[in-house]
Amino acid sequence: MREVMNDLVASLDRGGRAGLVTVVATFKSAPRPAGASMVVTDTGEAVGSVSGGCIEAAVFELAREVIDGRPPTMQRYGVSDDDAFAVGLTCGGIIDVFVEPVDVRTHPDLPALAASVQAGEPVAVATVVDGPGPVGSHLVVWPDRASGTLGGARLDDAVADDARGMLDQAATGVRRYGPDGERRMDELAVFIQSFAPKPLMLVFGAIDFAAAVVRIGKFLGYHVTVCDARPVFATERRFPDADEVVVAWPHDYLAGAGVDRRTVICVLTHDPKFDVPLLEVALRTPAAYIGVMGSRRTHEDRVSRLVARGVSEEELSRMSSPVGLDIGARTPEETAVSVAAEIIAARWGGTGRPLSELSGPIHHDRPHDDDSRTQALPESSSAGGAM
């Protein structure tokens, strides 16, 4: 819902009523992930997308119906469904969408939610999307409080506990409960959407390649910081797309940067006086991805220096060096694409091979393992969410 939040708030501010369509579950080769959303205003304007165009016309009509008074509803679209095929979901996927009305009565906590999202504060929203309970009810969950109700105190407590756990992982999905929050039961389907702060991309080395990596990092949804010890190079003028430009010794800055399991680190200095002490720190953080630029000869020299400083083989195995996938990149922009592709492959367990050479599902449903390196992509890569 992040990409349509402003439109929802604007609708409430003018006393209007909108229809919110949210993908709550996907199967096989679904075109958009869980959390993707579209808003239809009471003036007939549509913003956002839930299928890349496949079923927009059909869900637009459903949204108009809930604006006019139809109760919130869950709808499944897939190739096995004649109606879904008729509206164009021919990609082989199946998606469940939840359609609900949005106004000051149904969503009294929307302004507080929007303010937290805008401020980068962690917040999650739980919505009853199916079952015998009050379908369409909401619980907004912060790390230290909650607002709203899903119909009962025990259910609220159970869902709030799970929502905080999912928020820590920037996870979004459906959880099932009994009417009093029993986790052994599944009558109620609750969609939990996390709005975690943007993950960090830390780019070390204020070089021309860094500017391109910054741009693609912003495109992927990261909060991007450029750090270099040389003030003549580390300037906002040279990196206008960066969220922050820091002049500091890289290893000193990294030690206090708040690295977590979603952070990606790109070391582009290829100068041992900078990158060896930096990597000694980086390889002992929980970062999702650590990519290091340099030739193969530079890599070998770097490894020998790190070993001499006591870095273990296991720690060294976390380093992607030389950085990026083999796509024949030469320019800074092409190299940035190569780096981004490796980050995405690390997140989802992709092979980096042409899809035309492979068989089976195109999309990976989940990270390939539970290792910290699978946490590289920001939550906004599957942007959206039910209220």
TrEMBL record:
Domain of life according to the entry: Bacteria
Domain XdhC Rossmann: from-to ranges: 201-343
Domain XdhC- CoxI: 12-78, 117-178
Chain segments carrying region Disordered: 355-387
Any matching Pfam family: XdhC_CoxI
Polar residues: compositionally biased ranges: 374-387
Compositional bias per record (Basic and acidic residues), positions renumbered to this chain: 362-373
Protein known as: XdhC family protein
Species name: Phytoactinopolyspora alkaliphila
